[in-house]
Amino acid sequence: HGRLKVKTSEEQAEAKRLEREQKLKLYQSATQTVFRKVGPSERQAGELDESVLELTSQILGANPDFATLWNCRREVLQRLEAQKSPEELAALVKAELGFLESCLRVNPKSYGTWHHRCWLLGRLPEPNWTRELELFHCWDYRRFVAAQAAVPPAEELAFTDSLITRNFSNYSSWHYRSCLLPQLHPQPDSGPQGRLPEDVLLKELELVQNAFFTDPNDQSAWFYHRWLLGRADPQDALRCLHVSRDEACLTVSFSRPLLVGSRTDTLLLMVDESPLAVEWRTPDGRNQPSHVWLCDLPAASLNDQLPQHTFRVIWTAGNAQKECVLLKGRQECWCRDSATDEQLFRCDLSVEKSTVLQSELESCKELQELEPENKWCLLTIILLMRALDPLLYEKETLQYFQTLKASRAVDPMRAAYLDDLRSKFLLENSVLKMEYAEVRVLHLGHKDLTMLCHLEQLLLVTHLDLSHNRLQALPPALAALRCLEVLQANDNAIESLDGVTNLPRLQELFLCNNRLPQPAVLQPLASCPKLVLLNLQGNPLCQAAGISEQLAELLPSVSSILT
Which InterPro entries match (predicted)? Predict the structure, then answer.
């Protein structure tokens, strides 16, 4: 920094070019010589000796990221272990450690060099781990050395204290704390992410508040703050079980994507307390990891002459199960978890203590008054409100989103992220309101949505309104809506219908004023057997010549198509 760039003359530029060419020739020559000496016949002839160390040092000294040559050096050193005396071997190792330090000065982030150092020290009878801790601060290497030296986590935490006190912007130190604190304060049933006891949490919150009040624009402390208020990994759960007599189908949704049929994810179906062998598939037919899986049911398991049938799905790996009873004369049954009871949408922040979160919210609002356009502060306020009460703070949250998008501190390339995050929160709130109302109709119109998520939570929805938003596509996950009968998606920017596939109950589909370009994009609708009404008015494809005839041929089962 601060050095003026001096223009070079053509003569100087030519001299530098010739110098680079000369270095390249030497480099290539040395590389070819090494490869000749490490061939199969040369190995048998014993040419894999100390001369290879000398040759490879010339190359690695200029380019430490040559992984093959580090492998050659390891092979040479392994051979020399059996040939050298202890004194000679100690001198060789000392020289190798010194060479590694010189390579790290050339490129401190050379993975090959760090790996070779770990390998070398791991072969020593008494490596000097204390010197390694004092010498290097590369974080992955430090964790390796600390583990080998059995350094107590409390000492390493004190080390991060010293670095953070010196510089609040040390992101790696903050991250290291998030690894060390769960080791020092293990909590039962908190998962691999770990949560902290309240007294420790309050102390850490005080530290991180000092950091972001000192430098509000530095992201390191804000990220650590989000981790502090995060929650443990959600437990595996079977969220919803649905049985349809009409479709002779059973559908089940999970707390995370599964690949059913793999060695780890196995489902057992019991019908009337007897195991039933079935073929599981995903709603979209891709059979990739999915939140939702379904299977066909044999007629005997749906016999309406019996008073009832009991269906139970057991997820062995998740140690979870769900059961529902299909009564005589009923066409469907289900059993599901409540999104309101399980707090399914509070994944980024959790309520450790509502008083703690409320205090954090007030502190961030105070900072936002001093730094009105600080994007990290605004985003944290939004997340804290989501954790405290998403419905109570909905209006205020939307106002903060508007302020955040208007902020000059927000990179225009990140604006789409904020739009999608806002859409995610609005959809979550709508699902909560739907559950409180105990209905199967979801209204998402006029919300300026840019994306759809949590569709696995809408397994039982019969009517869905997505009109007047900014959606560009209906995603494949929409196929999870097995009970959907009416879908309204007018006045969006939809160009693709890949998600409108295999919907067994869909009867009416409204797609007015979108951007569907040609009849071919309607092909997925052929997999919806009950579709009778399709409104396409205001789409570009309606301008095509002979469109009515093309649509009648493409979708012969749809009795009413409006163009």
Answer: Leu-rich_rpt (IPR001611), LRR_dom_sf (IPR032675), Prenyl_trans_a (IPR002088), RabGGT_asu_insert-dom_sf (IPR036254), RabGGT_asu_insert-domain (IPR009087)
